[in-house]
Amino acid sequence: MSRHSRRMRILCLCATTLLMAGSALASEAGGHADGQLKDFLYRLLDFGITFGALYFLLRGPLKRALSARRQRVAEALEQARQMQASAERRFAACRQQLADADAQIAQLTADLKAESALQCQRIEEQARKMADDIRSEATRSAAREIEAARKQLHQEAVRLAMELAEQRLKQQIAPQDQARLVDEYLRKTGE
Length: 191
Description:
GO terms for molecular function: proton-transporting ATP synthase activity, rotational mechanism; proton-transporting ATPase activity, rotational mechanism. With 191 residues, this protein is an all-alpha fold.
């Protein structure tokens, strides 16, 4: 506030006070009809001056206060609009995240089912392969066992045949034939 406007306000306030005091004195002094008109005019003049002085004195601060109030209300409204827009954006983002989460859950479920089916198929294939390997090994092992048993039976048959042949020879060969065979054998080996 400038010095000039402050001085003017003080001057107006003093003039208003003097006029009010004058009108108060005038209203006490008169008692007749002409005095009533004067009193009414003084009061009217007093009201006009008081109203003018108050208007002059309060116009600036009141205007600034109302302007500041208007600005605060406008700022509050703008801030409320921004907060509402921000809340709506966050709400839309949350709604989108929920929709995305539902889609992700469905995708994960489908992926897990597919992976589970593949895993079951792999396990079945491995089990079949292991069963085939076990069968093949059992067949080879049985073939080896059969071959070993054949060889053993063959050896046993040869041994039994030799024993039988030896017994028959012992029964059929006389001691003279035996001496002759030994002599022949010694001659052949001695040569």
